[in-house]
Design brief:
Elements (H helix, E strand, L loop, with lengths): L1 H22 E7 L5 H12 L4 E7 L4 E7 L5 H10 L11 H5 L22
Antiparallel strand pairs: 1-3, 2-3
Helix pairs in contact: 2-3
Length: 122
């Protein structure tokens, strides 16, 4: 009887772990920036989105790695939050007004937005 109960508990724990693991996703994408202040600003913006568990931007590669809960957010929200603080991504470009307010060391080469199937920019 103890074996059956232990087996049942083990099965439940594995099931819950599998469901939770499917809800978290890891995604990487390019974010324009230059320095340590950019890193702090980009990571803070990404982490401010409810559902983001971690965000790490690499200054050398310009790539942000985000772990997030797919049940709570869509990755577009992370891109938008980053653009709102002045940093371009392929999905969302920062407004010129916000970009112009960045410190001089944070001025980066602006990214082009991805095109849709008709060749127009999004």
């Amino acid at each position: 009887m103890k074996t059956k109960i232990l087996s049942f508990i083990t099965l439940m724990v594995l099931s819950i772990t599998t469901v939770l693991a499917q809800a978290e996703k890891k995604e990487s994408f390019e974010v324009a920036g230059n320095c340590g202040m950019c890193k702090t600003r980009i990571e803070k913006a990404a982490k401010s989105v409810d559902g983001v568990n971690s965000a790490v931007w690499n200054k050398e590669t310009k790539v942000l790695v985000v772990n997030y809960d797919t049940g709570k957010i869509d990755i577009h929200k992370v891109h938008m939050a980053i653009a709102k603080v002045g940093h371009d991504t392929k999905m969302h470009k920062a407004s010129d007004e916000v970009y112009d307010k960045l410190p001089g060391c944070c001025k980066y080469e602006r990214l082009e937005k991805e095109s849709n199937k008709t060749g127009e920019t999004k």
